[in-house]
Amino acid sequence: MIKNEFPNDFSNQDELTQPGIEENMNPLPIYSLNSYINDGKRLKNKVAIITGGDSGIGRAVSLAFAREGAKIVIVYLNESKDANKTLELIKAENCEGITIEGDLGEEDFCEEVVKKTIEKFGTVDILVNNAAEQHAADSIIQITSEQLIRTFKTNIFSAFYMTKAVLPYMKEGNCIINTTSITAYHGNKTLIDYSSTKGALTSFTRSLALNLADMGIRVNAVAPGPVWTPLIPASFKKSDYQKFGSKVPLKRPAQPVELAESYVFLASEGASFITGETIHINGGEVVNS
Predict the structure, then answer these.
(1) CA 105, 110, 116: angle at the middle one, nearest 5?
(2) Phi, psi of 98 (to 5 degrees)
(3) Which of 28, 68, 170, 242 could form a disulfide with 42 if both were Cys (CB 3.0 to 4.6 A apart)?
(4) DSSP class per residue in the chain
(5) Coiled-coil annotation: which residues (predicted)?
(6) How far from 74 is each of 19, 41, 189, 192, 224, CA to CA, in Å?
(7) Are 285 and 182 in contact (CB under 8 A)?
(8) Residues 122-160: pLDDT tens digits?
(9) What pLDDT sits at residue 31?
(10) Beta carbons of 6 and 241 less than 8 angstroms apart
């Protein structure tokens, strides 16, 4: 069981850059539980590409997929230590995996990711569009055109590019899962551009689900509330996240492991009649959508 705790030790967390380094966080995010029960069959021999798979939610999902028998492609920007740690965790589960470093905001790189995946594993069954960045700003006036474009390229353009690149290799029964956010529904005072990208990703999920229904490819999303990931200390001042997550009904932030099972479910046969939907994991916040 995850305890009701807030991050309160900020050592080694200064000057983090987006999207953040997990190994520098204190306390470290929880990406696995000893009580995890699986039969290793729900995703057996499936091949999953997970963007932002090196840390945070992406690491927890990568490990959960591996425990269910999937082969994992971890795509990350430049956090090599985090990516290699996640790969070690996957291999410890006797599952195959590879890491690919690069900028998902560039379409050529997204095409390269899929090419390398096909060369290594011969197929792609699951795409998890999870990579993201965010930059807090007190006013829209502070958001430069460069930041706006950068945030959209990472958070929404990458999902378009990866989907376009992977679709020629997908078949009936495959799926796409997007990581959106509660900010798409409630907004956020200091994350205007980030919230906008998550709103776009939510609409992308719904529209793409309709578009791919005839192909038998499902498209769904997960909308986290506050989650203790590298993005948090990389985005906010220490004073702003000492009580991070305390305002939700459960009065704490989620740990990445608490989201992972929802991705496993959406990728599995158990969700075979679910498409165009969003699972809200936010500690009790009511979202009317």
Answers:
(1) 150
(2) -140, 160
(3) 68
(4) ----------TT-TT--TT--GGG-SSPP----TT----S-TTTT-EEEEETTTSHHHHHHHHHHHHTT-EEEEEESS-HHHHHHHHHHHHHTT--EEEEES-TTSHHHHHHHHHHHHHHHS---EEEE--------SSGGG--HHHHHHHHIIIIIHHHHHHHHHGGG--TT-EEEEE--THHHH--TT-HHHHHHHHHHHHHHHHHHHHHGGGT-EEEEEEE-SB-STHHHHHS-HHHHTTTTTTSTT-SPBPTHHHHHHHHHHHSGGGTT--S-EEEESSS-----
(5) none
(6) 15, 21, 32, 28, 20
(7) yes
(8) 999 999 999 999 898 999 999 999 999 999 999 999 999
(9) 53
(10) no
Cβ distance 287 to 185 under 8 Å?
Answer: yes
Q: Label residue 120 by pLDDT band (50, 70, 90).
A: very high
Burial zone of 94 (CB within 10 Å; 0-12 exposed, 13-18 middle, 19+ buried): exposed
Per annotation, catalytic residue among 76, 194, 241, 263: 194
Known catalytic membership, residue 36: no
Which two three-digit tokens encode residue 259?
């989201």
Overall size of the chain counted in residues: 289
Has residue 254 got a pLDDT over 60?
Answer: yes
Which percentage of the chain shows pLDDT scores above 70?
A: 81
Token duo for residue 130: 């999870």
Cα 137 to its chain centre, rounded Å, is 22
Alpha carbon distance 248, 155 (integer Å): 25
Question: In angstroms, rounded to a whole number, what is the distance separating the alpha carbons of residues 196 and 202?
Answer: 10
Question: Is 10 a residue whose pLDDT tops 50?
Answer: no
Higher pLDDT, 217 or 9: 217
